[in-house]
Amino acid sequence: MDKYKIDARAKLIITLCLSSIAVFIQNVYVLGFTLVAAILIAMLLGAKLLLVLKSFKKMWFIFAIIVIAQSIFTNAGANLITIGNFSFLSTGGLVKGLEFVLRLAVIVISATIITTSSHREIVQGLIQLKVPYEVAFMVLVAIRFLPIFMGEFRDTVTAIQLRGVDIKRIAFKKKLKMYYYIFNPILINSIKKAHKLSVAMEMRAFRAYPKRTSYLVLKMSLRDYFVILSSVFFTVALIVAYYLFLRGGCFESIINYRA
Amino acid sequence: MPFIEAKDISFSYSNGTEVIKEAGVSIENGEFTGLIGPNGSGKTTIGKLLCGILMPDKGNIFLDKEEISNLELCQIGQVIGYLFQNPDTQIFNVIVKKELSFILELKGFKKSFIDYQTEKMLNLFKLSNLRDSYTFNLSYGEKKRLAIASILINKPKFLILDEPTTGLDIKSKKMLSNILKKLLDRGIGMLVMGHDEDFIKEMAGRTIKIREGRIIG
Known about the structure:
The structure holds 2 protein chains of 2 kinds. Chain A is mainly alpha-helical. Chain A is built from 10 helices and 2 strands, in the order ααααββαααααα. Chain A has helices spanning about 10-25, 30-45, 50-55, 60-75, 90-115, 120-130, 135-160, 170-205, 220-245, 250-255; strands at about 80-85, 85-90. A two-stranded antiparallel ribbon of chain A has the order 1-2. In chain B, a hairpin with a 5-residue loop joins β1 and β2 (about 20-25).
């Protein structure tokens, strides 16, 4: 995939553009098109999409519940299922649910674009984009520590189950208590880790000098400038066009339809 | 039939590296078994496979004649107590006494029984003077003792201890070996993973050697 190698800053801008489209636009067609574009870009840059989808395997159930909740509480369009006077499912609700799934998928897929660069490159990219070093360093720490916290969470849940606690069948009142027990070690360990890290940083003279130099310096090529400019131009044009012309488009007529 | 039996088990992590290669282990209850090997040889993975935290890609594991894949972790937890390498991940409370009693409270035991068991464990593990201390202020050795005590309050038949002596000074190690000997006398068998050969020899038990995921002796 070296052919499509681009600067970490260009990847950050692409991710920002795709996520902005997902947040600002509420049109199923545009969101669908953005998702296809995000998948293509992620694949061209060598993102491991299957791995990400696998890691979200346990979340699909929650997504499904949110979609159903969106469908139930959005009372618009033609009624598909009604119980008495209450509209349980409507076409407008289904469109809103679909919109939610597409929006989330665009954000997740666009985030995988960043993962095609190393942590160090991403942080350096942020610094060279004039993000304060402290903020960039916090991003790095969050990225580095996330797998550790996930591992600890897994170990803690396993440890409590190995004490003979049946997580699935425990009574609701006790379940709340059990979650307190599970999050206790994670919280304490996080505070401890943060403390140790801060001491280690102080020992290495973090922020001792106002100007910081870096061994790694990212250099943008003509291709990177083209990618950044075209991404920003396309995103701005799409959002402006949407708010000027597309808002209230074909799906709005479905939502506003009353049987 | 042995208490725990693994037949030709193989296991690979998600990155594809085969950590355990067609290993077979038989462990009797009531005796001390040491599993020794260098770093990265697969000791912890074997331990996690034997108590159902991980499932083998190939082969079968039997716990008390029952295929382990048919048992849930909470059912295995009634029989086996597992000590993780890092005691911090298995200390769930901020107060020592509460850490010992909470699991019995969750299981709905009577207060008098919980208090009796808690005191018994505090005395056995020489933690009585620390009963009201914060768990996060304990030393590494005290945390390991507390973690083992919390496991034992659940009355498991067998213990799997992952590197219990790592980070302990000579005095703490001696205290731990005395406690483990007392448990052996009570008929609680144990599998201890580690590279502290002196400790395992002192416990005078059977030794299994592992290297690069294969059982070599």
